[in-house]
Amino acid sequence: MKIAVLASGNGSNFEALANAVRNGEIPAKIDLLFSDHQDAYVLKRAEKFQIPSESFELKEFENKAAYEYALLNLLKKNQIDLVILAGYMRIVGEKLLQAFPKRIINIHPALLPSFPGLHGIKDAFEAGVAETGVTVHYVDSGVDTGPVIAQEKVIIDKNDTLEILEEKIHAVEHGLYPAVIAKIIKELGHETCAD
Ligand code: GAR
């Protein structure tokens, strides 16, 4: 089972996954970290964990299809079986979805289908809802759609600021994502993507 994590920015979820690998909670290693931003902090985190990383940006390519093709080639070259999105802020294209059926997983900081998109935490906060949460789901061609694998609620207290809510959500993400990924890897066993 070869695993790639795709991330665009800070990488705190990547770090939670890398820690879970290190402490044995996830029974596999992360073989590759890809970032679509060359200056993303997640690349520094990969270096710290000595996880191989690659980075290129959409703007280096003629169009989105060419970017996706390069990404697909990178994953194939590394014989990746499971793709974990951790703050990867792009829609996954059809070619990638076809190459990894039910093998691309995402985490989103809201209780989907509520508050999809780039600002799940802020949108829930501003909507004034009493609870929000975290969703782990299989990726399809939509924005934060696709079958839900697991959800965990987070209560929004009256006194919570957006910053406090962000901290609460991230704390839940850092527990939930490694646990769900560990379970998925155990269920997949030694199956490769080619099986
Ligand atoms: C996380 O909260 C993740 O759920 C969110 O981006 C953040 C990345 O943080 N993803 C989405 O909003 C996907 N639509 P991180 O870089 O510190 O892991």
Plain-language structure description:
There is one protein chain. This protein is α/β, with parallel strands linked by helices and 195 residues long. It has a single domain (2-194), classed as Rossmann fold, CATH 3.40.50. The protein has helices spanning 12-22, 41-48, 64-77, 94-99, 120-127, 162-188; strands at residues 3-7, 30-35, 53-55, 82-85, 104-108, 131-138, 148-155. Strands 3-2-1-4-5-6-7 form a seven-stranded mixed beta sheet. Helix 1 (12-22) crosses helix 6 (162-188). The longest helix has 27 residues, at 162-188. The protein is globular and about 50 Å long. The termini are close together. Glycinamide ribonucleotide binds at residues 7, 9-13, 86-87, 107-109, 120, 144, 173. The site of glycinamide ribonucleotide has 14 residues, from helix 1 and strand 5.
Structural features:
globular, binds glycinamide ribonucleotide, alpha/beta, Rossmann fold, single chain, 195 residues, 38% helix
Mean pLDDT: 96
Name of the top-level CATH class: Alpha Beta
Tally of distinct domains: 1
CATH architecture title: 3-Layer(aba) Sandwich
CATH superfamily: Formyl transferase, N-terminal domain
Contiguous uncertain segments of 5+ residues? none
Count of DSSP E strands?
Answer: 7
Main sheet characteristics: 7 strands, mixed
Beta-strand content bin: 15-25%
How big is the Rg? 16 Å
Would you tell me which CATH topology applies? Answer: Rossmann fold
Q: Indicate the structural class.
A: alpha/beta
What is the first-to-last residue Cα distance? 11 Å
Order of helices and strands: EHEHEHEHEHEEH
Number of helices: 6
